[in-house]
Amino acid sequence: MNVSSDGRCAFVKKTPDCNMVDGFIDYLQVAFCLLPPNLTPLTITLCMIWLLFLFVILGLTASKFFCPNLSAISTCLHLSHNVAGVTFLALGNGAPDIFSAIAAFSHPNTAGLAVGALFGAGIFVTTVVAGSVALVKPFVVASRPFLRDVSFYMVAVFWTFLMLFRRTTSLGYLSLYVVYVVIVIVSSFIYQRQKRLMFSVMGTCVCVCVSESEYRPLLPSTESTCQILLTSLNPVDSRKWRRKPWSWRVFKVLKTPVEVLLLLCIPVVDPDKEDKNWRRPLNCLHLITAPLVCVLAFQSGVYGDYKIKGEFPLWLLILLLGLFLSAIVFCSTSNDCPPKYHPVFAVLGFMASAVLISAAASEVVSVLHMLGVVLSLSNTVLGLTLLAWGNSIGDCFSDITVAKQGYPQMAISACFGGIIFNMLFGVGLGCLVQMIKTQSDVQVKGLLTWILTGALGLSLALSFITIPLSRFHLDRGYGIFLLVFYAAFLLVALLTEFGKIHI
Fold it and tell me: Which PANTHER family match (predicted)?
C-alpha cells in the first residue's frame, strides 16, 4: 500500500509473496488490477458480502452434511455416545475452525491468521458465549466436568504458547487430546456405573420416548421417482416455517439456493430414520456429483485440468465412472427400501463435505489476506475478529438457544470442551502441514500474539478460580464480568494493532 495506485498492479504481478495459489480466485489481482483504485470501498464491500456467503457455505456444509454423516459413520461402527462426542462429533463441530487453521498455516504469510482465529475464537467462546449463557439462564455448573475441561484447556494453551515460542511442534502435543478423550470416557463410565447402582437401590426407572409418529400419514402413500427427487431437494420444512419468526424466514430464503446446490452434491445418511434418509433418485445422482465435487474442489481445483498421461481429463473419467455406478444402483434398488451398502453413502458424503469445507476455508483465508493488505491490518487481528466471529457465531446462537430451552449445563460444556479439540488439532496439524510443505519452522511473532495467549490463559484462570469459589454457581453478575473482560481484551488488541500499545 506504500506503492502508488498506478504501480500496485505491477507490484502484485511481479512480487512472489503476492501470488495467492491457495484459492480459486486471486483476490489481490482483483483488488489492484481488475478494479480501479477509486473503487476500493466497493471492493471491500463486495469482499465482505462474499465472506458472509463463504461463512454460510461453511456453516451449512458442516451442520447439515458433515456432522450427520460423521454421526452415521460412528453409529455404523457401534461407537458409544461419549467416544463419538469427543471424536467424530467434535471434528464435525470444529471442522470450519480446523480447516481454516490448516489453510492459513499452509502459507507462512498467513500463519498469524490461524493463531488469531483459534485464540480469538477461544476467548470469544469462553467469555461472550459463556457469559451470555449465564445471563440467559443462571445455573450451577457440574463441578468435575468443568474442572476437567478448563484444566485441559489451560494445559493446551500453555503448550501452544511454548510451541509457538520455540517454533516447533511434536506428536505429544496432538496426543494430549487422546489423553483427554480417555479421561472423558473413563469418567463417564464411572458416573454411569454409580448412577445405575443408585437406581437399582432406589428401584426407580425413568423412560423418556420421543417419536414423530403423529406426523406420519395413516395410510402409506407412494410417490413417483420424480416426486421423490423434487421433495428431497426442498430444504424448507413447512412445519418449522410456520412457527419461525420473519427474520429466520428471510435468512432461510437467502441461503436456500446454497442449500439446494449442496443437496444435489452431498448425500446424507440418517440412522435415526426408518428409511435411513434413502432417496433413490437423488442418491443415484450423488454418485455422479459427489466424486466430481471432490475432484474439482480438492486443493482449490488443482486437479480440474489434470489429464491422465497428458490426454484424458481426470474429471471426464470420474464422470463416466459415476454414470456407470449410478445406472447400476438405480436398476438394482427400489424407492422404498435402502440397500445394504447404503452406509457407503455416508462415507461419500463425509468426503465430499470435507473437501467443500476445506475449499471454502481456503477462500476465507485468501479473502481475509487481501482485506489485510487493503486495510493495512495484520493477519492476526483479522483472525481474532472476522474469522473468529464468523466461525463462532453459530456456536454462540446455538448455545444460547440450548440454555433458553433449559439445558445451560450442556451449553457451558460445549463452550469449554469443543474448543480444546479445535486448538490442539488446528494448531498441531496446521504446524505439521507448514513444516512438511515449506521445510521451515513456524513463523508467528508479534506483541499481539502474546496478548492473545495471555488473555485466553487469564480468562481460563479466572474461571478456574472464581467459579469454584462461588460454589460453581454461574450467575448474571459473572456473565456481565465475562462480557466486560472480552470488551477490554478487544480494546487492548486493537490499540496494539494501531501502535498505541507497544514494547
Answer: MITOCHONDRIAL SODIUM_CALCIUM EXCHANGER PROTEIN, NA+/CA2+ K+ INDEPENDENT EXCHANGER
Closest CA to 126 of 496, 494, 458: 458
At 454, which helix (H) or strand (E)?
helix 447-469
Backbone φ and ψ for 422, nearest 5 degrees, come out as -60, -45
Cα distance between residue 145 and residue 292, in whole Å: 44
Element (H, E) at 73: helix 67-76
User: DSSP character for 376?
Assistant: T
Helix (H, G, I), strand (E, B) or coil at 164: helix
CA dist 101 and 49 (Å) reads: 21
List residues bridging with 474 in a β-sheet.
139
What values do phi and psi take at 330, rounded to 5?
-65, -40
Give me the helices (H) in 222-270, please.
225-232, 238-243, 246-265
Cell of 27: 483476490
Under 8 Å between Cβ of 94 and 429? no
Q: What is the pLDDT of residues 235-248, one digit of tens each?
A: 888 888 888 888 88
What distance, in Å, lies between the first and last C-alpha atoms of the chain?
A: 25
Residue 236: partners with Cβ closer than 8 Å, 6 or more residues away: 252, 256
Cell of 9: 498492479
Candidates 375, 368, 345, 462; CA nearest to 104 is 368
Tens-digit pLDDT profile for residues 64-121: 888 788 778 877 877 665 566 566 656 666 677 777 777 777 776 677 787 888 888 8
Are 386 and 116 contacting, i.e. CB atoms less than 8 angstroms apart? no
The domains found in the chain, sorted by start residue, are: 25-194+266-271+342-498 (1.20.1420.30)
User: What pLDDT is attached to residue 31?
Assistant: 86
C-alpha cell at 453: 495467549
Angle at 78 between CA 75 and CA 81, to 5 degrees: 70
* DSSP H or E run through 436: helix 408-438
Cα 163 to the center of its chain, rounded Å: 24
Phi, psi of 357 (to 5 degrees): -65, -40
